[in-house]
Structure formats: structure tokens, C-alpha cells
Design a protein that fits this description.
five-stranded antiparallel β-sheet, 22 helices
């Protein structure tokens, strides 16, 4: 084009002609904007952002399609009593949280963003999927892009010092990740300080062996801090997971983050999303721009901010005061506070009276019952009836320290009540609950009810019991399978980990480093197959033989999880007793086969081969755990235990192990 002085194009025209965007259309310099903003409001001492010269890096250890993933967010759970936190609401300091929290990933959550520095002018804040990507994460798990989702996501507070984040919050997040079998983490921050907080946590996780990718919108803050992997979206703050009400954008954002997680080879890898927020870049000029605010508006904003700081400080002091008091309580103090009924017959009488099971003035006989390691159990005789009272203990009666939350008693009660609707003849009736002492009263089953463990160890094998039990457990599993309401009611992940996975498989992994990867893989897999209502302790010691068949007790491990656990746990008892009793070996091995055959006939919710494989591969882990875990089988001699250990280790190393292989090899090793 021929130019004259009169026809000379403006710079904007030239940019348009060449396809350039404005020089203003670049990532916002949030650190500088924040400094200028607070100086403009009248605050001195500009904030110093975390800055590192290097960044840790942990490669992804396995293909993403086999990896267990979770999310870390800075969004807060919605509480109606804390004021407006909905779409369009302004900064709400009362909605802050100050300690790390966890949330179950198998249910939906109402998480909201009430941060002071989120862009509320150019984005609606109506679609939580733009800042909390759990629904989209489930979609990617369904499509086999990721292996599985950890049982919990985590919320990280952003109101503490950088030092507190590094020394307290980040280690707490790491501890929870390890407990839940997390193998990779996606972090989704919101406000500027959120980006710094989650950058610090990402660094800490990577330094301790967990790969991460941060999805965010504040490029300068994240890169200034230095993270291993960063997927940058040039969107207004509060949209780290994609555009609102745009599933394609949200999916592309998360998929791209996972691509960065998979392909990055060095720390400080940043990839920018190709998505644009809009054709206009005006939102970038508006955000926290002191030059676009009138003096009168500045005064109002400062007053508002000062008030919010005061509310937040009071809330912080209150929440942290409670949390610090709780964290300062030692185990000994917990036990002292616990209302132990073992030596308190007056308290037991009060419970019976409050439940209208006894009169205040009548004679009540209380007898402590033997058996079990996790509870106080009493036989109570009144003038009218006999009852059984059970109370969960905080420290189990074993040699190694084994702590468990006493609230598990309520899971047991709920399991008994649920099972009673399916197999009423197979569970005792719950007659009353005492919330304060964490105990409940149930039907007493007298001496005519024989303990199955005692019978088996004596070599008295009731052949049909194993078949009956297989059908009962199968029916309970079948009729509770894939029920969302039960999944929410029995989302007892922490309890199940504390009293089953940690003392059994995790402890065995500590004792056998060479098998640790195999055992921890079993933990992760068990945690990520929430299909049925699991009893958690289907053991002969918890089964009474009554006139109508076996009766199941002690469901305090109840959890909505993998049915393979119940079956492998019960089968393990047959195998261990067969090792202990060569003279009864054939009968016990037949019991195992009969139990499994009857159970498999009830499966309706998934393909039988898939479940059968999970049962067979979990079984040797539980075998090893009953030798080297926190609850070793007391009847195994050292010599017999060594033989069990050898075989269990052999089975654990086989990728294609089957029940028939285990059954055959066990016979070769232990049959007379």
C-alpha cells in the first residue's frame, strides 16, 4: 500500500492489519498491581512475595491412566450462617477457613470463593466448576484418562504466613495425601495470595515425592515463586479450571494440565492455554487498577477492607484457638477424657435407665465379656431381660499403638440397622444408643450361640455355615450396591484407613520395604472401588452360630467401599487356620471354597472376573498382615508364621494371581 503523510495509519490500524494485539493485552502483573493497590488505599510496607531460585521436580512414576489423582483447592465450604457467599457477592471475611480440611470426592460439594482480590466484575462466579474441577475430574476418570480419584480432596487456607504454609499446612497436606494413596495432585488457586499458597504447597509435595501441576491465572506470582509445572490460563481470577458454563473449556483446561503433568521433563515448565477469555482485553485494565478508582471510592474501599480484616482476625483467633487446643491434646489426655464404662457400673445403669431398658431402682447385673480388641462389651441382666452393651475404645487392645476414632460405633449401628432390612436373621437387633459414651445396647445372644472361631480352632467344622455366610454377605453387598445415599452415609474413609488399611497393609509395607509398592497399590485400589456397603471385619470371631444360621457382629469398620475386602478378609481366616491345623486342613480349605462359591452367586453389580481378581490379589496382602501387621494371628507359631510369610510374599509378586493358584499352593505347603 502506498503511503503519504496524509494517509499514514495509526499504530492501532497497523496492529490490526498485521494481526497484532494491543501491548496492554498481556498477562496482568498481579504483584505490581497488588502493591500499587494497597499503597493507594493507604497501607505501607508492600507485601513481599515468595521467591525461589530453583524448584523441585518429581517425575510421574506411572502412566496417567494408572495414576491416583486428587485436587487441592483454596475455595471454602459454604455455610449459610456466614453471610452472602453466593454468585455476585463481594468479599466476605466471615467465610474464611484457617486450617487444612478434607472432603470426600465421591459426593458433590458446595465450595465458594469469597476472597478479597477475585475479579467479580468481568466474571459471574456462578459456576463452581471454574474454580473446583472435581466434577470434570470424575469425567476424566470415567473416560480412563486418569487412573482413579483419591477418596479425599483438600482445602488449603490462604490466610496464614508464608512460613506457616511451608512448615504447618504443607506437611499436613502431604500427610493426608500419603494416607489416601495420592500419586499426583492438581492445584486450583483463586486470588493472588491463593496462587502463592498453592505454589508453596506444590513445591513441598514435589520435594517429598508427589508430582503436581498447578492450574492458575496469576502467571507472575506462580513463576516468581517457582513451581514444577504450571498450566496458565489468561482468564480473570477465579477461573483457574476453565470458563464458566462452558464444559468444553473446562475439559480442555484440565486435560491440558494433565498433559503438562505427563510431559514436563524439568521444573518451572509453564504451558499457556490457547483459550482467550474474550475479544476485549478491557478486564485486564480494570482489575485492581488504582488509576481507575476515584478518591471517594478509595475511602469506601479502605473502610470496607479494614472492617473485613477485623472480622477475619476475630474469626481466625477463634478457629485457631480451638484447633491449637485440640492439637495440643496428647493421646493420654484423650483416653482420660474418654468416658470408659469398664469400671463405671453406675454409668451403665444410667444408660439403661435413660433408654427405658431398666428401672432406676431395680437390680442390674453387669458382666464384662471377653473377646474382641476394640471395644468394651458387657452382658447386662435386669429383672426383665438380658442385653449386650458395646462401647468403642480409642486405643485397641494390641501390643503396638493402634488408635481409632470412637465415633466408629455409629457406623456399626448404621450397618446393623441397614443389614437388618436385608437379612434380619443374620444380625442382632439394636435396642438403644447412648451418644455421650459412644455406646449402644443390642439384643443379647446367650450361651446357645457358639462362637465360630472357637469352633473352627477346635476342629469342629460346620460345613454349611460357610455357604450360608457367603450368601448372606453377598446379599448385603448386592442390595447395597451402587447406592448413592449409602455411599454418602458410610463415607467413613478415615476410619476405615485407621482401623483396617493402616494397621494391616500399611504396617506390613513398613515391615517389608521390598513389597511396599505392591502393598500400597492394594491400599489405593481398595480405597477407589466404592461399590457396596462393606462390613470390614467378616471374621469367625465376629460370627455366632445360631439356630437359623450365622449371625454377624462387630461392624465398626463399616464403610462404603470395595466388596473384595470383606471376602478376602474372611477367606484369609480359613487359610490361616488351615495352616495352623493340618488335621483340619482339607475341611477348612473346603470352607473357603464354599464361602467364595456362594458369594459369587450373589454378584449383580460388576463382572465376576474383575471382582474375583481383586479378591485373589488382596488376599496375600492380608495374609502377610496377619503375620507382620499390628494384629498378628495369635495362634500362629513362629515357624508357621514364617511359612505364611514366605507364601504370601510369593503370591504378592505375581501379577496374575488367582484364587485357584493360592488354594492349590496352600494345600501343597500345609496339607498333611
Amino acid at each position: 500500500m502506498f503511503m503519504t503523510e496524509e494517509t499514514k495509519l495509526s499504530q492501532a490500524d497497523v496492529d490490526q492489519l498485521l494481526g497484532f494485539v494491543s501491548d496492554d493485552d498481556q498477562p496482568i502483573r498481579y504483584m505490581q498491581r497488588t502493591r500499587d493497590w494497597y499503597l493507594g488505599l493507604g497501607y505501607g510496607n508492600p507485601y513481599r512475595w515468595a521467591h525461589f531460585a530453583d524448584a523441585p521436580f518429581t517425575p510421574l512414576r506411572k502412566p496417567l491412566k494408572d495414576t491416583c489423582v486428587t485436587i487441592i483447592t483454596t475455595a471454602a465450604p459454604y455455610h449459610p450462617d456466614k453471610g452472602n457467599q453466593g454468585p455476585g457477592s463481594t468479599y466476605n471475611s466471615a467465610a474464611k477457613f484457617f486450617t487444612v480440611y478434607s472432603g470426600a470426592t465421591n459426593i458433590d460439594h458446595d465450595l465458594r470463593v469469597s476472597h478479597v482480590a477475585v475479579d467479580r466484575k468481568h466474571t459471574s462466579m456462578q459456576d463452581s466448576n471454574t474454580w473446583f474441577a472435581l466434577p470434570m475430574l470424575r469425567e476424566l476418570a470415567r473416560d480412563k484418562i486418569i487412573g482413579s480419584i483419591a477418596p479425599f480432596f483438600y482445602g488449603a487456607p490462604t490466610n496464614r504466613s508464608q512460613r506457616h504454609t511451608i512448615e504447618v499446612d504443607a506437611p499436613e497436606v502431604l500427610k493426608r495425601c500419603r494416607a489416601d494413596g495420592v500419586e499426583a495432585v492438581v492445584l486450583t488457586p483463586n486470588c493472588p495470595v491463593c496462587h502463592q499458597t498453592l505454589s508453596l504447597i506444590a513445591r513441598y509435595l514435589e520435594a517429598n515425592g508427589i508430582p503436581t501441576v498447578l492450574m492458575g491465572c496469576a502467571k507472575d506470582i506462580v513463576e516468581h515463586c517457582g513451581v514444577p509445572r504450571f498450566m496458565f490460563s489468561d482468564f480473570p481470577l477465579g477461573n483457574s479450571a476453565g470458563k464458566p458454563h462452558d464444559l468444553a473449556s473446562q475439559r480442555q483446561t484440565l486435560e491440558l494440565a494433565f498433559k503438562v503433568l505427563e510431559t514436563a521433563v524439568v521444573a518451572r515448565t509453564t504451558v499457556q492455554s490457547p483459550q482467550r477469555w474474550s475479544q476485549s482485553h478491557e478486564w485486564k485494565l480494570d482489575y485492581a487498577n488504582i488509576e481507575r478508582v476515584s478518591p471517594e471510592e478509595l475511602i469506601r474501599l479502605k473502610q470496607e477492607f479494614d472492617k473485613g480484616k477485623e472480622v477475619a482476625q476475630n474469626l481466625r483467633d477463634k478457629q485457631l484457638g480451638v484447633a491449637e487446643k485440640q492439637s495440643a491434646v496428647t493421646h493420654t489426655q484423650v483416653v482420660d477424657v474418654f468416658k470408659d464404662l469398664a469400671n463405671n457400673p453406675a454409668a451403665i445403669k444410667r444408660i439403661l435407665s435413660n433408654l427405658n431398658l431398666a428401672q432406676d431402682d431395680e437390680t442390674v447385673t453387669i458382666t464384662a465379656l471377653a473377646g474382641g480388641v476394640s471395644s468394651n462389651i458387657f452382658q447386662i441382666t435386669t429383672q426383665q431381660a438380658q442385653y449386650c452393651l458395646k462401647q468403642a475404645l480409642p486405643q485397641l487392645k494390641v501390643a503396638k499403638q493402634w488408635l481409632a476414632p470412637v465415633d466408629r460405633v455409629f457406623a456399626e449401628i448404621a450397618w446393623l440397622q441397614t443389614a437388618a432390612k436385608i437379612a434380619p436373621q443374620a444380625v442382632p437387633q439394636v435396642l438403644g444408643i447412648d451418644q455421650e459414651s459412644k455406646s449402644f445396647v443390642m439384643q443379647y445372644l446367650g450361651e446357645e450361640y457358639l462362637n465360630w472361631k472357637t469352633e473352627l480352632l477346635a476342629g469342629r467344622l460346620a460345613a454349611k455355615v460357610a455357604t450360608q455366610l457367603g450368601h448372606i454377605v453377598g446379599q448385603i453387598h448386592s442390595q447395597t450396591a451402587l447406592k448413592e445415599d449409602l455411599a454418602k452415609q458410610f463415607a467413613n474413609y478415615a476410619t476405615f484407613y485407621a482401623i483396617r488399611l493402616e494397621p494391616y497393609l500399611e504396617e506390613a509395607a513398613r515391615q517389608h520395604p521390598e513389597l511396599s509398592a505392591r502393598l500400597k497399590a492394594l491400599i489405593v485400589r481398595t480405597q477407589h472401588n466404592p461399590k457396596v456397603l462393606v462390613h470390614g471385619d467378616v471374621s469367625p470371631k465376629n460370627i455366632l452360630l445360631g439356630p437359623e444360621g450365622p449371625i454377624l457382629l462387630d461392624a465398626e469398620c463399616a464403610w462404603y467401599g470395595d466388596p473384595a475386602f470383606d471376602i478376602a478378609f474372611c477367606l484369609n481366616h480359613f487359610f490361616l487356620k488351615a495352616a495352623h491345623l493340618p488335621q483340619a486342613h482339607a475341611g477348612l480349605m473346603q470352607n473357603a471354597q464354599d464361602f467364595l462359591n456362594a458369594y459369587l452367586q450373589e454378584i449383580t453389580w460388576e463382572p465376576v472376573p474383575a471382582l474375583e481378581y481383586r479378591i485373589a490379589s488382596l488376599l496375600p496382602g492380608l495374609m502377610l498382615a496377619r503375620v507382620d501387621g499390628k494384629s498378628p494371628a495369635e495362634y500362629l507359631t513362629a515357624t508357621c508364621g514364617a511359612r505364611v510369610r514366605k507364601l504370601a510374599s510369593e503370591f504378592l509378586k505375581q501379577d496374575d494371581i488367582s484364587f485357584s493358584t493360592i488354594h492349590t499352593r496352600w494345600g501343597q505347603e500345609f496339607a498333611q
